[in-house]
Amino acid sequence: MSELHPHDEIRSSDGHETEILAAIHETLGGNRNAFRVIVDRYSPVVHSLCVRMLGNRDDAREAAQDIFIKIFTSLHKFKMGNKTLPWVYTIAINHLRTRYKKKKNRESAENDYKQEQINIEQAPALETDPALQIIRNEEEQLIHAALSRISGKYREVFVLREIENLSVKETAVVLKIPEGTVKTNLFRAKQAIIKNIVKKVKPDASNESI
To answer: Which CATH number fits domain 126-210: 3.80.10.10, 3.90.650.10, 1.10.10.10, 3.10.180.10?
Structure first.
């Protein structure tokens, strides 16, 4: 039996949302200890996203710390009528976009793939989807190598939809793009991942990339 992804566990209970909203209110009121509730509740979600986007657990741990600092300094901007989870994802994605660009600039061509590997056993599994059957039949390392090679806009949609389990609507809110664009980019992301996996397994395959 598969375990709930941290995102699904949080979304499955309205009590979590009430608890987080109360913590935000108390933190803004001067009780900084209340922020610990937010950190404890969203750490699994944020860390999972960081690992998937950066591909390295040390980088992910540092990025998660920076993201929670940004969340803390942005609490006054949160609108109490909104859901907290998409808001957290938005802050995280914006930070990771910048961090990923800096990370890729630092890396040399020789260790491109080595920096993308993660602990497979602790990573959440992909959802069942016929269009991803070819991906699930390959080694997990190939998937992450492929993720590192596709366009950022496709990687973000794929990670949020297929790994973090956000809905199309939630993904659109986080990335600030239309729902139709989410669906289109997800389709193209799957094509690109499959193409990169095939190219890795068969070096003589077409060099075209999406």
So the answer is: 1.10.10.10
